[in-house]
Amino acid sequence: MATKLDYYAVLEVTREASGDELKKAYRRLAMKYHPDRNPGDASAENRFKEISEAYDILKDDQKRSAYDRYGHAAFEGGGGGFDFNGGGGFGAGGLGDIFEQMFGDMMGGGRRAKRAGADIQTQVEITLAEAFSGVKKTVTVTTRVVCEACEGTGSKDREAGVETCPSCHGAGKVRAQQGFFVVERPCPTCHGAGRVVKDPCVSCHGAGTVQRARTLDVAIPAGVEDGTRIRMTGEGESGGKGVAPGDLYVHISVAQHELFQRDGSNIYCRVPLRMAQAALGADIEVPVIDGGRASVKIPAGTQNGEHFRLRGKGFSVLRSSSRGDMYIQVSVETPQNLTKRQRELLEEFETEAGEHTKGSPEHAGFFSRVKDFFDGTKG
Fold first, then answer.
1. Are the beta carbons of 79 and 194 closer than 8 angstroms?
2. Which domain does 281 fall in, by range?
3. Record-annotated residues binding Zn(2+) 2 (predicted)?
4. What is the distance between the alpha carbons of residues 245 and 250, in angstroms, rounded to a whole number?
């Protein structure tokens, strides 16, 4: 069995990394090594699988705790290890399964390991507008499917050439005593299949599965966030006849938008204003993520960086009909390339402003403090 790298090292983070740090590291590395960006590069594909596996464990607090305590052993073995996929509790077998996995024959165990085909992963990039409204995307994945020639048995003569594994007696796993504990591992003879093939199928060479490209439709719900993982049960690799297929995990990447920035269910939009608009006030129209428009009243004397809130104009909330809010951030723009008349008007304005400082209280206050500072230095 190949030695697995430390999950923290795979994601290039420390063991004290926060959830946000893990997420950022995963996104960066997944984009770098994704098979679609590295066609034909087997090492990049393997690296992508390592990254996805590491993040799948470390992003879950319970799995991460088990990994920190027991390492990879917490998740190894065909059906052994701990299963945290039950919504925060233990796996479907509950505590009985855990004691059986830990103490084996001492607890009177001996049930056959549950087997399934391998899980596979792919990535889909969508626009911010598609994430807002939801979208259906078509993905093509290369995976293993049941061999039609042998109907998944792996045998040239189908059932006639398949026998129960003599090493594990069909269990698909073997046990070894390690001090007080009994540890289960996949059977080395049948590799967890529980059976051996004497006369292999010429199409699949005894595997019972062959590699094929498949096209699937993925329904992406409204409100989905960047980095979300969608699980498609049973759409992964086939494990052969009598074995449940694995799952397909679709990682969602949301592209940046040229106007909007998203923060959870809220949307931010930076709107530049001319100096006169900010000083005199104005009524402006701004775009909304749903494709509509919204009117915003800018009061006279608006300062650079001020925010205006538009309730219910934000992003869709996942699995809900409600929406967040939209925030308009004002950016007051200084005019450039002035005409002669514009310059004259601004010079006249500046002369008038110098005589009436109430219109710029922050400016007047700052330079008043500057004067006091220099006067104190001289004293």
1. no
2. 260-373
3. 165, 168, 187, 190
4. 16
Helices (H) and strands (E) in the chain, counts: 9, 15
Evaluate whether residue 34 is within a structural domain: no
Which letter does DSSP use for residue 80 in this model? Answer: -
DSSP strands (E only) in 82-128: 120-126
Total domain count, the chain? 1
How far is Cα 164 from Cα 305, in angstroms, rounded to an integer? 73
Full-model pTM: 0.57
Which CATH number covers residue 343? 2.60.260.20
Residue type, 260: F
Domain-located, residue 18:
no
User: Can you read off the two tokens belonging to residue 303?
Assistant: 């300062």
Task: Please check if 187 is assigned to a binding site.
Answer: yes
Please tell me the distance from the alpha carbon of residue 334 to that of residue 277, in angstroms, as a whole number: 11
Q: Is 237 helix (H, G, I), strand (E, B) or coil?
A: coil
Rounded Cα gap, residues 168 and 166, in angstroms: 6
Q: Tokens for 285, please give them.
A: 């129209």
Q: Which amino acid is at 221?
A: P
Beta bridge partner(s), residue 297: 283
213 within domain boundaries = no
The dihedral built from the CA positions of residue 317, 122, 114 and 62, taken in this order, carries a sign that is negative
Asked whether the beta carbons of 273 and 333 are under 8 A apart, the reply is yes
* Structure confidence by residue, pLDDT tens digits, 286-316: 999 999 999 999 999 999 999 999 999 999 9
pLDDT tens, position by position, 102-150: 444 333 333 334 457 788 899 999 999 999 999 999 999 988 888 878 8
Is residue 234 a contact partner of residue 118, using CB atoms and an 8 Å limit?
Answer: no
Residue 332 placed within a domain: yes
Annotated ligand binding at 147? The verdict is yes
Task: Tell how strand 181-186 and strand 173-178 pair up.
Answer: antiparallel
Please give the span between the terminal C-alpha atoms of the chain, in angstroms, as a whole number: 80
Q: Which of 63, 60, 32 is nearest to 48 (CA)?
A: 32
Burial of 208 (0-12, 13-18, 19+ CB in 10 A): buried
303: helix, strand or coil: coil
CA 195-208-148 angle, 5° bins: 140
DSSP type of residue 89: B
